[in-house]
Amino acid sequence: MKRVTKAIIPAAGLGTRFLPVTKAMPKEMLPILDKPTIQYIVEEAIESGIEDLIIVTGKGKRAIEDHFDTNFELEENLIKKEKYELLKKVQSCSKVEIHYIRQKEPRGLGHAVWSARKFIGNEPFAVLLGDDIVQSPEPSLRQLIKQYEETGNSVIGVQSVPDEETPRYGIIDPIQQDGRLYKVGDFIEKPSLGTAPSNLAIMGRYILTPEIFGFLGEHEVGAGGEIQLTDAIQKLNEIQSVFAYDFVGKRYDVGEMLGFIRTTIDFAVNSPIYGEQVKEIIWELFPEYEKHSLMK
Questions:
Q1: What local confidence, expressed as pLDDT, does residue 224 receive?
Q2: Cβ neighbourhood burial of 109 (10 Å; 0-12, 13-18, 19+)
Q3: In Å, what is the CA distance from 278 to each residue of 93, 106, 273, 288?
Q4: Strands 132-135 and 155-160, how do they pair?
Q5: Which of 5, 57, 170, 217 is 20 to 30 A away from residue 118, measured at CA?
Q6: pLDDT < 50 positions in the chain
Q7: Can you tell me the distance from the alpha carbon of 177 to that of 183, in angstroms, rounded to the nearest whole number?
Q8: Per-residue pLDDT at 54
Q9: Pick from 258, 260, 278: nearest CA to 269
C-alpha cells in the first residue's frame, strides 16, 4: 500500500463573504492572531506527515506564495538580532515542499482538486480545506491517514452538526458503524432541510484514492452550478468503499464572518501569551459579565 505523502489545499475561491477586504487580500491570508488561516492548515499537514503540498490558487492569490517563500533578508535580520523564537515561527512551514497551480476559472471544489491531478499521479492523497481549522491532540488529518492505512480505502472526515445546519454541508448516509468509523451508503451534497439521512457532515478533511480523478474529469455540474467533490466521492463509493471517520477535535469554521470572529476570540482568550490580557479587555468592555466566568 502506498503511503499518503501528498496533499491538496484548494485556495482559489473569491472570498466574497469577506468583501471588501478580500478584494485585494486572499481570504486565506486573513490572520487568526499572528498567523494567516492557511498556515494553520499547512502546519496540520506537516504534523500529519505530508511531504509535498500543492496549493490550488486563482487570480489575486500571489500573497500566499510570498508568505510561504523563503525571505532570506528577514531571516538574516532575525539571526543578527538573536530573535530565534521569531525565526522559528517564520520557518515553521519549511519542512514541506509547497507547489502551486492556478485554477483558471472558479468551477467548484471538485474542479480545483482535479486541477492537481498531474501533481498527485497514481497515489493516494489528502485534501484539506482552508475554511476549517481543527485543534486536537492528534491532527485530524493524521487520524484519517491511520484509518486509510487500516482500510486501504478513501476516508472522509465528518463531525455532527445540528439538524438545521445540514443543508450547508455534504452529509453521509451511514450503513455500518465500527466505533468512529462508518461505512457509507450515500454522500449527499447540501440536502434540503428535513431530508438529510444523518447529521454527520463532511468537515474539510479527506484521504482519497487516485481513482477519484476519473469521476472529477467528467466535469459533471452539481449543486450551485459547480463541479462538486462530494458527487465524485459518491461515484467512487459505487466501485470501491469510501469510509467516513468522526475525527476527534474542535473544528472552527473560518469560512464565514461570524465563524471567523468566534475563532479569533477563542484563540485570543486561550493564547498562553495574550489570553489573560484579552480576558481583562473583554471584562473592561463588558463589565456586566461576571469576571470569574472569563477567567476560567
A1: 66
A2: buried
A3: 28, 39, 10, 16
A4: unpaired
A5: 170
A6: none
A7: 6
A8: 95
A9: 278
